[in-house]
Amino acid sequence: MTTGRDDKNHPAGSEASLETGTEKTAQPQGRTPEQADKAPSQLQTPEQSAESLAGRHFDTKLIHFGAEIDPATGASSVPIYQASTFHHFNIYDPPQYDYSRSGSPTRQALEDYISLLEGGAGGYAFASGMAAISAALMMFSAGDHLIVTEDVYGGTYRLLTTILSRMQIETTFVDMTDLEQIRAALRPNTRGVYMETPSNPTLKITDVGAVTAWAQEHNLLTLVDNTFMTPYYQRPIEQGVDIVLHSATKFLGGHSDVLAGLAVARTPELAAELKKLQNGLGTVLGPQDSWLMIRGMKTLGARMERSEIGARRLAEWLAERGDIASVYYPGLPGHPGREIQEKQSTGYGAVVSFDVGSEERAKRLLNRIKLPLVAVSLGAVESILSYPPMMSHAAMPREVRLERGIGDGLLRFSVGLENIEDLIADLEQALAD
Questions:
Q1: Are 310 and 280 part of one and the same domain?
Q2: 107 lies in a domain?
Q3: CA distance 157 to 317
Q4: Residues 282 and 309 in one domain
Q5: Could you tell me which PROSITE patterns the record lists for this protein (predicted)?
Q6: 36-71, pLDDT tens digit by residue?
């Protein structure tokens, strides 16, 4: 049988014949060792990928990110390594991968991909956005105090107030559009600042650079949920943020077919801490879902641009109506955070929230709408219309929700890739009395 190897140079049983761990380029059938040696490494470090891709535009990096071609076969897609464990060819030279909870080639490709896009020192993929957020918040210890965006995602609010609170991790929620409120919340045991900008669902804008500069003066760890903007529009690490988080289920995945979370660390030291937590907690993303994430992220730029055009048109149309109580979108001229948004981001995003005035009217609209999904989540190719009081912020007590501006008539519209005029016509009929 032909194996593509020179058996005279690699006799059976010799140690040389066993030195094919996953940290080295494998020798596939039909390819000589010399050919394999010339193949680029699929498993570059984030630093190597960033160096090799320096100078390329973001849209190009979405397609050519260092692992887009399988070095063993030339396949145009990262292979799905559907394996739970990996053979040690040489017990004295352990392979890069030994057990899939600790790492796998498919997940590594995704993790290096998001690290490259965010400009970090290391990226990590989790089983959900909340798994990524939970792991990052586990960097804090009992007795620590956190300052957090007041209208944060409901799942993050629930984690902080019902789970981490039992571990004696304290939280103060503040309006992060006001730097004085953040300063006033500082305590001797404050250890971190958690930002969400634009916030979910009222789309308030936090000045990331200003908050981070203040936090650094007090040696505080800074975290940002970048789900709504993605690295296509906003890269907080460039403004000094320590950890960037994503519910990758949303815009990064983009197709409503995968549940995933991503975290990116600014420094190698923080990356090592995140890796330890990921491995210790075991909330990792599987290889098939990692592959789906990579597939979805390749079209991120095209999707974000198209959806944002629709979102801006929708926000303007809603703002012109006399029967809408409030419209929240940072691209509107009257949005109080527009100037800051334009300073720290290159776009406004694809999510528009609006208040129709009452719970009764909101629910009537949801039952009449025909094109968008009426569902939890956002950031997909199909538009998704959500009702935060019953969906994303159901875990937040009503009185707390109302204090944060999340009224009973509030709806959140994630604009997809449909023709925006069709979406507006559908919304118009659903709003009719």
A1: no
A2: no
A3: 32
A4: no
A5: CYS_MET_METAB_PP
A6: 344 344 335 555 666 777 788 999 999 999 888 888
